[in-house]
Structure formats: C-alpha cells, structure tokens
Specification:
- It is built from 14 helices and 24 strands.
- It is globular and about 65 Å long.
- It is of the alpha/beta class and 465 residues long.
- The strands form six sheets. Strands 1, 2, 3, 4, 5, 6 and 19 form a seven-stranded mixed β-sheet that branches.
- The structure holds flavin-adenine dinucleotide.
- Flavin-adenine dinucleotide (FAD) binds next to helix 1, strand 2, helix 2, helix 3 and helix 9.
Length: 465
C-alpha cells in the first residue's frame, strides 16, 4: 500500500462522504475515502436519487409521447416501449455520474481505498484487502442507510423487490403492489405505472407522504388516483407467498379487521430506510448509537473524540443534500471554520408528476406548536405558463407568522416545483417575510409567478385570481 497515514479518513463514498472528502481536500487536508461498493457515489448515485430520476424522466417522456401530445395538436402513432433501451439510459446516467466523482477524487488528490472499512481504534481504520490506515485529525462515518425490511416479507429482488430491484425490473409487471406511500414508493410506482403497470399502493397510515403538509398529501393522492394509482390506506400487509408467477399478499385494516388477499406480479417494499453501521466495529471502539443512528453532538462528533458522523447514518431526514451540507460543514469545522447546517430548512422533494416540494413547517406542525399563522395559496390553473405547458394540477401555499409575516413554511405541488423550492429556501434563510417574496419581481410568464401570487395571497391581495 502506497500511503497509510492521512489527516482525514472518510468511511463511505456517498453524497455525505464524497463531498466531505472533496471539501476537506480543498482545505488542504490529506484525505482518504474508504468505499466498499465498486463505485463511488453511494446509494444516491448508484441505486437511489440518480437512477430513479433517470427512469422518472424516461417514463415521463414515454407517457407524454403515448398519451400527452394530442392536446398540443401533435399526432403520434406507434409509440412503443423499449425497456432495455430505457434501462440502458439509466445505466449510462449512473455511470457518467459515478465516474464523474472518480474524476473529482483525482482532481483533489483524494485516495479512494476500495474495500470495507472497520474502525479498530479512535484513529485507525482497517480496510479489507488494503490494511490499517491512520487518521491524525478525524475519522468520518458516512456509511449511509439501507432498506428497512418488513417482517414476514422476504425480499428476493425478483418478485418481491426493494427500491434497488424496482430500478431494474426485467419487464413491466401487470400489477405492482407498492408497500409504503412515501417518497420512494410513489416515485417508483409512478415509473412503472407510466410504463403500463396497474399500481396499488398499500399504506399503513391513513395518508400518503405522511411527513408532508396534510393538504399537500391529500392533493397528491387525488392527482395520482386520477392518473390510475390505487390506494389502500390504513392497511397493513401481514404476509406474502411467492409463486412462480406472482405474489399473494395478505392485507388487513391497520386498526384490525378481516384479512384480504391481493394478487400481484411484483411487490415493492418501500417502508423506509435504516441507518447502516454493520461491520464498522463501533461497539469495539465504544461509539454510541441512538435507535440505530450514530449519536453525534452539534459538531458531528460522536462520543469518541476524533470520530465523527454525517448523512443518513445520523439523525435528520435521509436526503442526499442534507448529507452533502453536513459533509461540507464538518470539513470546514475540522479546518477551524464556523460552518453549520440549518436543519430547519432542508427542502423535501417528490419527483413524481406533478412534483411535490416543501420546506419549513407544515400547517399541522404550526397548529400543534400553537403558532398563529397566515396562509396564502395560488393554484397553477390560474398561471399562464402552466396553462401553456398543459400542466395545471397543483398549487403553491405559503405560511407566514401572523404577527411578523416571516415565512415559516412553503408547500407546493405542481410542474417543476423541485426547481422552484430553492427560491423559498433562500428567502427563508434570510428570514424573508411573505411581503418580501410578494414584492420580488418574477419573470413573466413563469411558473414561479405562482410563488409571488401565493405570497400576495398571504395578505389577501393576489392579482390573478
Ligand atoms: C430509490 C431512492 C431514491 C432516492 N432519491 C433521492 C432524491 O431524489 N433526493 C435525495 O435527496 N435523496 C434521495 N434518496 C436518499 C439518498 O440516496 C440518501 O439520502 C443519500 O444517499 C445519503 O447519503 P450518505 O452519504 O449518507 O449515504 P449513502 O449514499 O448510503 O452512502 C454510504 C456509502 O457507504 C458505503 N459503506 C457502508 N459501510 C461501509 C464500510 N464499512 N466500509 C466502506 N464503505 C461502506 C456504502 O457502500 C455506500 O456507498 C433516495 C434513496 C433511494 C433508495
């Protein structure tokens, strides 16, 4: 082995780990990143954000070509699905992204150590097939998360798949049952629904997207139902038996009641993800966990000095951009800077069509906290650009403090809202009021005018409705 001593050793090459490694190298540290997968980029680039968005984009185009162009005066005939071609598009997007990280590692002179890392002392990591390496400044645990299993339902990645298997189904199932009405279930359910599957979403709770604003989840479910998705809410899956041709699922009301059988060609288990710390040797070095997550202080440090943790493996939403922000902040703190992450303003996005995007507090949270607030809402049906593009489902809702008018939460469902939420995150970072947003000139005609109008509506003076 060429090198065995580093300033910073990062375990895990996902968005948390690779970004932390790059920023630490930019700041002059000698950095190694230990990654056991054959490629860099972690869950996000290999089997998460990026491949799912590649399939969402491709299936959106298929759906539009097959059914969505007539309203624009475009006649299309003989639209056919080439599933291997679509999978090849996804694979190429993943390859381009993960090799991009390899390039960035070379550019920043980061040593990529290929193998599983195990912490053997507060400054030592044993890398499988490589040997022991030391970190004089910090060991960073960025080992991410993996799929939460559902007791009684064995994932075989053929008929009963996790999100990873659902990204590579060899054919379009006639009936896909998605267990879990969260972000991943709805996104991958949308992909296969657009490609021709009948999709049934079984959700234990009485609503989809349970952590989002209630009005947003209700509207999202209504729109997805209109698109053909079936929902069995307040329902739990109690068993599955796999046959040669499909899966027989037993479901019953979450509150108790008679069991039913649902037949499916494929089942996607998407009930969530859990922190991944297997084989890391945390018990031996005494790193404490809290309900499976690595316990950290306000500076990402574990209870063992010199060992830090970021990303999905620690508390907070399991999102790539949250992991990245933590990676940057930690590297800068190690260099003596005063960086921090504003965990109150991590946006959440669902990349279905229409998209769903939110930041800050929901109405339910404000009510529960007894905060007096004002709400302003504007529908995309009244937005010229949305009409021109034929995408009028959805709305923008802005919640602001009743006394100060400071924006407390923004909840959107509609076309391209994933790109529009950034404006509001920025506004909220600067403690903007709804009036500030309302008085900001937005280009016409753009979808973002719905943001301005929602902000005007907070004060009861929208112009175009
Ligand atoms: C289908 C799907 C879609 C998603 N879509 C989005 C999205 O659109 N937007 C979004 O923000 N988030 C999305 N996510 C979540 C996102 O992928 C995660 O939040 C993000 O990857 C977390 O980054 P991380 O660096 O903490 O961990 P990970 O990306 O999980 O990376 C951890 C890495 O550590 C490696 N590792 C683990 N243990 C060891 C060890 N002992 N030694 C060496 N290496 C090790 C693993 O191989 C892995 O590569 C999605 C997830 C899934 C599954």
């Amino acid at each position: 082995m060429a090198e065995s001593t580093f300033d910073v050793v990062v375990i895990g090459g996902g968005p948390g780990g690779y970004v932390c490694a790059i920023r630490a190298a930019q700041l002059g540290f000698k950095v190694a990143c230990v990654e056991k997968r054959g490629t860099l980029g972690g869950t996000c680039l290999n089997v998460g954000c990026i491949p799912s968005k590649a399939l969402l984009a491709a299936s959106e185009k298929f759906e539009e070509a097959a059914h969505g162009l007539a309203k624009f005066g475009i006649k299309v005939g003989g639209v056919e699905l080439d599933l291997p071609g679509m999978q090849a598009h996804k694979d190429k997007v993943v390859k381009d992204n993960v090799t991009g990280i390899e390039f960035l590692f070379k550019k920043n002179k980061i040593a990529w150590l290929k193998g599983a890392g195990k912490i053997t002392a507060a400054n030592t990591v044993e890398v499988e097939g490589v040997g022991a390496i030391t970190a004089s400044k910090a060991i960073v645990i960025a080992t991410g998360s993996d799929v939460t299993p559902l007791p009684g339902i064995a994932i075989d990645e053929k008929r009963v798949v996790s999100s990873t298997g659902a990204l590579s189904l060899p054919e379009v199932p006639k009936h896909l049952v998605v267990i879990g009405g969260g972000v991943i279930g709805l996104e991958l359910g949308s992909v296969w629904g657009r490609l021709g599957a009948k999709v049934t979403v079984v959700e234990y709770l009485d609503r989809v997207l349970p952590s989002m604003d209630g009005e947003l989840s209700k509207q999202a479910q209504r729109i997805f139902a209109k698109q053909g998705m079936d929902f069995k809410l307040g329902t739990k899956v109690t068993g599955a038996s796999v046959t040669e041709t499909g899966v027989s699922l037993t479901v019953e009301p979450a509150a108790g009641g008679a069991a039913q059988t649902v037949e499916a060609d494929a089942v996607l288990v998407a009930i969530g993800r859990r922190p991944y710390t297997e084989g890391l040797g945390l018990e031996a070095v005494g790193v404490e966990l809290d309900r499976g997550r690595v316990k950290i202080d306000g500076h990402f440090q574990t209870n063992v000095p010199g060992i830090y943790a970021i990303g999905d493996v620690v508390e907070g939403p399991m999102l790539a951009h949250k992991a990245e922000e933590e990676g940057v902040a930690l590297a800068e703190q190690l260099a003596g800077q005063k960086s921090h992450v504003n965990h109150d303003l991590v946006p959440g996005v669902v990349y279905t069509w229409p998209e769903v995007a939110a930041v800050g507090k929901t109405e339910e949270q404000l009510k529960a906290a007894g905060v007096a607030y004002k709400a302003g809402k504007f529908p995309f049906t009244a937005n010229g650009r949305a009409r021109a593009g034929g995408n009028t489902d959805g709305f923008v809702k802005i919640l602001s403090d009743a006394a100060t008018d400071q924006v407390l939460g923004v909840h959107m469902i509609g076309p391209n809202v994933s790109e529009m939420i950034g404006e509001l995150v920025l506004a909220m970072e600067f403690s903007a009021s709804a009036e500030d947003v309302a008085r900001t000139c937005h280009a016409h005609p753009t979808l973002s005018e719905a943001v301005k109008e929602a902000a005007l509506a907070v004060d009861g003076r929208p112009l175009h409705i």
